[in-house]
Write a structure and sequence with these properties.
By secondary structure, this protein is of the alpha/beta class. Bound molecules: adenosine-5'-diphosphate (ADP). The site of adenosine-5'-diphosphate has 16 residues, from helix 1 and strand 4.
Protein backbone atom coordinates (compact mmCIF):
# COMPACT_ATOMS: atom_id res chain seq x y z
CA UNK A 1 0.00 0.00 0.00
CA UNK A 2 1.19 3.46 -0.86
CA UNK A 3 1.48 5.82 2.11
CA UNK A 4 0.32 9.27 1.18
CA UNK A 5 0.74 12.22 3.53
CA UNK A 6 -0.79 15.65 3.14
CA UNK A 7 0.62 18.94 4.43
CA UNK A 8 -2.19 21.51 4.35
CA UNK A 9 -1.89 25.22 5.00
CA UNK A 10 -2.20 28.75 3.71
CA UNK A 11 1.47 29.09 2.66
CA UNK A 12 0.99 32.85 2.24
CA UNK A 13 3.87 32.78 1.34
CA UNK A 14 5.90 29.59 1.81
CA UNK A 15 8.77 30.05 4.30
CA UNK A 16 11.94 28.09 5.02
CA UNK A 17 10.11 26.75 8.08
CA UNK A 18 7.44 25.20 5.83
CA UNK A 19 10.14 23.78 3.55
CA UNK A 20 11.89 22.19 6.50
CA UNK A 21 8.64 20.40 7.39
CA UNK A 22 8.15 19.41 3.72
CA UNK A 23 11.61 17.84 3.54
CA UNK A 24 11.21 15.95 6.79
CA UNK A 25 7.63 14.83 6.11
CA UNK A 26 8.41 13.73 2.55
CA UNK A 27 10.91 11.23 3.92
CA UNK A 28 8.17 9.66 6.05
CA UNK A 29 5.82 8.75 3.18
CA UNK A 30 5.78 7.55 -0.40
CA UNK A 31 4.13 10.74 -1.56
CA UNK A 32 3.55 14.08 0.16
CA UNK A 33 0.78 16.33 -1.11
CA UNK A 34 1.23 19.99 -0.19
CA UNK A 35 -2.31 21.33 -0.17
CA UNK A 36 -2.90 25.06 -0.37
CA UNK A 37 -6.25 26.05 1.14
CA UNK A 38 -8.38 28.11 -1.23
CA UNK A 39 -11.01 29.17 1.28
CA UNK A 40 -8.87 31.82 2.95
CA UNK A 41 -8.34 33.82 -0.22
CA UNK A 42 -9.85 36.99 1.10
CA UNK A 43 -7.39 37.38 3.94
CA UNK A 44 -4.32 36.30 2.03
CA UNK A 45 -1.72 38.52 0.39
CA UNK A 46 -1.12 36.14 -2.53
CA UNK A 47 -3.72 34.53 -4.78
CA UNK A 48 -4.00 30.75 -4.45
CA UNK A 49 -2.34 30.15 -7.84
CA UNK A 50 0.63 32.26 -6.84
CA UNK A 51 1.03 30.46 -3.51
CA UNK A 52 0.94 27.17 -5.43
CA UNK A 53 3.48 28.28 -8.03
CA UNK A 54 5.94 29.53 -5.40
CA UNK A 55 5.74 26.14 -3.68
CA UNK A 56 6.24 24.28 -6.97
CA UNK A 57 9.24 26.45 -7.79
CA UNK A 58 10.99 25.95 -4.47
CA UNK A 59 10.17 22.23 -4.16
CA UNK A 60 11.21 21.20 -7.66
CA UNK A 61 14.97 21.08 -7.07
CA UNK A 62 15.43 18.64 -4.27
CA UNK A 63 12.16 16.92 -3.53
CA UNK A 64 10.85 14.35 -5.95
CA UNK A 65 7.93 12.76 -4.12
CA UNK A 66 6.06 16.00 -3.51
CA UNK A 67 2.96 17.20 -5.30
CA UNK A 68 1.53 20.72 -4.85
CA UNK A 69 -2.22 21.22 -5.18
CA UNK A 70 -4.91 23.60 -4.01
CA UNK A 71 -8.13 22.44 -2.44
CA UNK A 72 -11.57 23.69 -1.56
CA UNK A 73 -13.88 22.57 1.18
CA UNK A 74 -13.17 20.17 4.01
CA UNK A 75 -9.65 18.80 4.25
CA UNK A 76 -10.91 15.37 5.34
CA UNK A 77 -13.06 15.06 2.21
CA UNK A 78 -10.03 15.81 0.10
CA UNK A 79 -8.05 13.24 2.12
CA UNK A 80 -10.62 10.54 1.35
CA UNK A 81 -10.64 11.43 -2.32
CA UNK A 82 -6.83 11.16 -2.53
CA UNK A 83 -6.55 8.14 -0.18
CA UNK A 84 -4.37 10.07 2.23
CA UNK A 85 -3.34 8.23 5.38
CA UNK A 86 -2.01 11.10 7.45
CA UNK A 87 -2.11 14.85 7.80
CA UNK A 88 1.14 16.64 8.66
CA UNK A 89 1.21 19.84 10.69
CA UNK A 90 4.12 21.75 12.17
CA UNK A 91 4.34 22.87 15.79
CA UNK A 92 6.44 25.88 16.64
CA UNK A 93 5.59 26.92 20.16
CA UNK A 94 2.93 26.34 22.78
CA UNK A 95 0.95 29.05 21.04
CA UNK A 96 0.41 26.70 18.08
CA UNK A 97 -0.76 23.86 20.27
CA UNK A 98 -4.28 24.96 21.15
CA UNK A 99 -5.25 25.70 17.57
CA UNK A 100 -3.62 22.57 16.17
CA UNK A 101 -5.15 20.42 18.90
CA UNK A 102 -8.68 21.63 18.08
CA UNK A 103 -8.23 21.05 14.34
CA UNK A 104 -6.73 17.60 14.87
CA UNK A 105 -9.59 16.53 17.14
CA UNK A 106 -12.21 17.86 14.74
CA UNK A 107 -10.58 16.08 11.80
CA UNK A 108 -10.39 12.88 13.86
CA UNK A 109 -14.10 13.18 14.61
CA UNK A 110 -14.92 13.71 10.93
CA UNK A 111 -12.52 11.07 9.60
CA UNK A 112 -11.36 8.60 12.30
CA UNK A 113 -9.14 6.74 9.84
CA UNK A 114 -6.96 9.77 9.03
CA UNK A 115 -4.20 10.46 11.58
CA UNK A 116 -2.63 13.85 12.24
CA UNK A 117 1.14 13.77 12.69
CA UNK A 118 2.97 16.72 14.24
CA UNK A 119 6.56 17.59 13.46
CA UNK A 120 8.36 19.97 15.80
CA UNK A 121 9.68 23.04 14.04
CA UNK A 122 13.46 23.02 13.80
CA UNK A 123 15.01 25.42 16.31
CA UNK A 124 16.30 27.79 13.62
CA UNK A 125 12.82 28.23 12.12
CA UNK A 126 10.66 28.07 15.19
CA UNK A 127 10.18 31.85 15.15
CA UNK A 128 9.38 32.03 11.43
CA UNK A 129 5.80 32.55 10.29
CA UNK A 130 4.32 33.82 7.03
CA UNK A 131 2.68 36.64 8.98
CA UNK A 132 5.98 37.84 10.50
CA UNK A 133 7.78 37.54 7.18
CA UNK A 134 5.15 39.77 5.54
CA UNK A 135 5.35 42.27 8.34
CA UNK A 136 9.16 42.49 8.31
CA UNK A 137 9.22 42.67 4.50
CA UNK A 138 6.65 45.48 4.53
CA UNK A 139 9.15 47.58 6.53
CA UNK A 140 11.96 46.56 4.16
CA UNK A 141 13.62 44.31 6.74
CA UNK A 142 15.94 41.51 5.59
CA UNK A 143 13.99 38.28 5.10
CA UNK A 144 16.52 36.55 2.84
CA UNK A 145 17.32 33.79 5.34
CA UNK A 146 13.66 33.17 6.17
CA UNK A 147 12.08 32.42 2.78
CA UNK A 148 13.23 30.64 -0.40
CA UNK A 149 14.80 32.90 -3.07
CA UNK A 150 11.82 32.78 -5.42
CA UNK A 151 9.57 34.36 -2.78
CA UNK A 152 11.60 37.55 -2.28
CA UNK A 153 10.94 39.36 -5.60
CA UNK A 154 7.27 38.35 -5.50
CA UNK A 155 6.89 39.63 -1.97
CA UNK A 156 8.55 42.93 -2.85
CA UNK A 157 6.35 43.37 -5.90
CA UNK A 158 3.18 42.48 -4.03
CA UNK A 159 3.94 44.74 -1.07
CA UNK A 160 4.76 47.68 -3.36
CA UNK A 161 1.40 47.37 -5.09
CA UNK A 162 -0.68 47.13 -1.90
P1 LIG B 1 -2.47 27.66 8.45
O1 LIG B 1 -3.18 28.91 8.02
O2 LIG B 1 -3.17 26.41 8.07
O3 LIG B 1 -1.96 27.65 9.85
P2 LIG B 1 0.29 28.06 7.59
O4 LIG B 1 0.76 28.16 6.19
O5 LIG B 1 0.47 29.25 8.44
O6 LIG B 1 -1.22 27.64 7.45
O7 LIG B 1 0.94 26.81 8.31
C1 LIG B 1 0.76 25.51 7.86
C2 LIG B 1 1.35 24.55 8.88
O8 LIG B 1 2.76 24.74 8.95
C3 LIG B 1 0.84 24.76 10.31
O9 LIG B 1 0.76 23.50 10.95
C4 LIG B 1 1.91 25.60 10.95
O10 LIG B 1 1.96 25.41 12.34
C5 LIG B 1 3.15 25.03 10.28
N1 LIG B 1 4.25 25.98 10.24
C6 LIG B 1 4.22 27.28 9.86
N2 LIG B 1 5.43 27.86 9.98
C7 LIG B 1 6.27 26.89 10.43
C8 LIG B 1 7.66 26.84 10.80
N3 LIG B 1 8.43 27.94 10.73
N4 LIG B 1 8.18 25.67 11.22
C9 LIG B 1 7.39 24.58 11.33
N5 LIG B 1 6.07 24.56 11.03
C10 LIG B 1 5.52 25.68 10.59
Amino acid sequence: MMHIGIYPGSFDPVTNGHLDIVRRASSLCDKLIIAVARNQDKRSLFATEERVSMLIECCSDDINNVEVVSFDGLLVDYCRQKEVSFIVRGLRAIADFEYEHAIALMNKKLAPDVETVFLMASAEYSFVSSRMVKEVASYKGDISSLVPDCVIPRLMKRLCSV
